[in-house]
Structure prediction request, 277 residues.
Amino acid sequence: MKTYVITGGTDGIGKALALTYLERGHEVMVVGRSAEKGEAWLEAARHHGAAARAHFVRADLSLVSETRAVIDRIRTAFTKIDALVLCARHFRTTRLVTAEGFENTFAHFYLSRFVLCHELADVLEAANTPVILNVAGPGGDGEIHWADMQLERAYDGQRALAQGGRLNDLLGVGFTDSRPETPVRYVLLNPGTVSTSFSGQYTPAIATQIEAMRRSAQLVDEAIAPILKVLAAPPAAPLSAMVRGERLDPHGPGFALEDARRLREHTKRLLAACPEG
Ligand SMILES: NC(=O)c1ccc[n+]([C@@H]2O[C@H](COP(=O)([O-])OP(=O)(O)OC[C@H]3O[C@@H](n4cnc5c(N)ncnc54)[C@H](OP(=O)(O)O)[C@@H]3O)[C@@H](O)[C@H]2O)c1
Prediction:
């Protein structure tokens, strides 16, 4: 029996992975914002006679304080985790700043993933073949706004998400760089367009586009089949990246080591200055 922790596991790809692993007899902790969706997950687990192996932690991962509370819950529940699957993502048309002072997309899509990866590394390293699966947008063409990473001057929902994809690429590079001996395989994965809940705050025009996209997108059950294969047998390299099943060079453009180190230092400074963090 393996232990899976899945953020954003109350909907979309994360939820489908969580249910699959539960059905396969594993222990699964789902992290999500909605108590109602969390209860639905626990109810599904009871229905499968698997309540003892299902866990739910309600948390808003846009807050460092809540991300750290999740880490405490994980440490209390498990001595090792085999897979950390990062799926929480929420689109915002308008810029929102968290109570801790971070732009929301930056906070939940990148910063919480940074904290989870680095601060759970030892719990992952206690497993035999640990893996972090960061489901995002590797190799994307977003820009990192080094001088305005919180997008105070030029916020746009797509720009924030695209920047987040790039930051997650550098998180993968930085994680493996900072732990040269780690057994953790780090996989950055973009599944392609999948018909999920697309959690977000949209204008009516964007909501219409999302609806149209959903109609031609892959179904969640189709989309998770290759993801399950990757999780069952991650590539041997410490860091790998893939877009819809195609391998990307994780040392190519967008994955520069010097940028990853710069970002790691920048992120550490932000966390050190964060009163709640
Ligand atoms: N779907 C696609 O076409 C696509 C394409 C490329 C990459 N991806 C990536 O795949 C991953 C999963 O996407 P998806 O489309 O399956 O997601 P989804 O259906 O939109 O679900 C997102 C999940 O994240 C949770 N979440 C959002 N903000 C959160 C927060 N602040 N704290 C805790 N949980 C939060 C949501 O909870 P609520 O339900 O409460 O909002 C939900 O459970 C994402 O990282 C995304 O970037 C998806």
